[in-house]
Amino acid sequence: MSFYYYFSLVISPAVAGIMFYYLKKYYDKERFRLLTRAFILGALSIFIPLIFQYLAKTYGYTDLRNLKRIVFYSFILIGFFSELGKYLVLRYYVYPHKDFDGPSDGIIFATMIAMGYASVENILYVFSYIDYGNMNPILAHAYTAAPANIFFAIVMGFFMGMAKLGHSSFLNSLGGFAAAAFFHGLYDFCLITRDYKLLSVFAFGFMILVILLLWKTARGKIEDKRTEINHL
User: Which of 46, 69, 115, 226 fits 16 for a cystine, CB–CB 3.0-4.6 Å?
Assistant: First the structure.
């Protein structure tokens, strides 16, 4: 196995390490412990898609011989169940915690969960312990998995944070999960079909969406600070 495969394994842990280093300066001990547990649980959430990967392989659904199978495999067996594991950690473990209080926390915790997931997924994928279809290019997946999972996490985390603020909680919570699952499925569909033109268009459009969500999150925090100053 070449150096490029081994190097790809450190991308997600490196991103998580940078986040840990930076956030340790600003988070208290309890919130930092929650962040650490979110990473670990994100890593463990890989078992949910693994179960369905095993079932899919058992019943022959990893033999992607037509478009219908590729669509089902990409959007349901990969996109839906991969994001389901992350969503369950974010919604039922992190979300109820008192230190989770808005879109910025949603994005940070969702990203940490995603990096835990991506760290384990890349190891399993590169060493062929996980099968994402007999047409999926390994190296392309290995190098794009970390940024892709970060983008999916930003979408899910933003809407989960909006739900915590009380803005249509049910719709925002499920909407964030549905959007992340759809985009994850589309990403893998592009890889499996090797449609890199569609992947480029998707990546460009998705990056704009992510920038808008980050801008809205930052703007909201600035407005909150202004409100606190005005009340002094």
Answer: 115
